[in-house]
Amino acid sequence: MRQLSKLLVVIPAVMGIWVNAASAYREYFTPEQKTQLAKIQTVLVDAIALTDKGSVDAGPLAEVAARRLGELGYTVVQDSGKPHDVVFRVKCEQRKTWEGTTASGGDADLPDAPSRLWKGPACQLTYLLGGMKIKWQKEVRTDFEDAAAAAQAAQAGEPGPFAMAKLKDVLEKYEFPLLLTAEWGQPDRLLKLLDAPNTSQSRKIKIMSLLGEMQADEALPKLKEALKDRDLAKQALVAMGNLGKDGIPLLVDMMNTAPQVEVQAAAAKGLGQIGGIHGDASVVLPLLAKLNDPKTDWAVLTEVAWALGKIPDKRSIQPLYDIDKKLQAIRDPENVQLKKLKEAVFWAIKQCDTWDQYS
């Protein structure tokens, strides 16, 4: 029973992360700052490279940052005397010094958040707006913590330059330009890159994810277009779930007719997100119809249950209890998908069956 009570606390907290992240997006900025961010065009790149023997040439690191920001259409300068709208700082060290995170939980728990424990090679990425350091802070690291040992194993000579070269390689792959563009609230740049013929599939998926987090309604036409691409359809549907109500009919259709189970599941998830963000109960009946369909795959049912839990509605209570009863009769402890489905239904019931407390 104690473990069950812990589950009741943990699952709602986990499921609530997406709501908080979406609804609180960039809320720490003032209206004036948001206006400044939306108009950013010229970026001053300020790079520094520190090894155990002191500072070394940070030019290669600055070049990577400048070139990759240029892919998003930004004008990049490296002379602080030239006019600029924002300062992007890249501090790379052979042995990282701790600068602290801004908060715990949420973004602070992501893999690219600054790590208190990591002492090896790392680049810390920050930016300044109007001379003020903003909360946004990312960190990229090498896959080794001891630069000396790694350099020796690779027969690469001095560990300092070796670590900087490896960090440069990491910066080549890390999508900081996309993250900054989303942070600055400039969806048009992301949409342009999404439409570019040379943009990789993995990058398109990241862009769509960010557009969803930004709740960029102007992205809806492009996301609908992305549904034609099997490799992008799932992420497009999830992103649409963070946008406006205009996407509901399409999401319902995809949930019911898509031949791929993963696409149906993504559509159900998107409906839950829309319902949760906008408080739109119109998605409940289509979700209940899918819940009651005996042909619905368990993976899809799992997302349907999570979705119903995000939109507490009296109409969901009995159908959820009915499916819970059926699931409890199935004994298959090795079935991972069944376990996930039971957890989702259990959580959804707890979210929906609270009406008697307030009646």
From TrEMBL:
SUPFAM superfamilies reported in the protein's UniProt record: ARM repeat (SSF48371)
Where does the sequence pass through the membrane? Answer: none
Care to name a GO molecular-function term for this sequence? Answer: oxidoreductase activity
Domain of life, per lineage: Bacteria
Q: What is this protein called?
A: HEAT repeat domain-containing protein
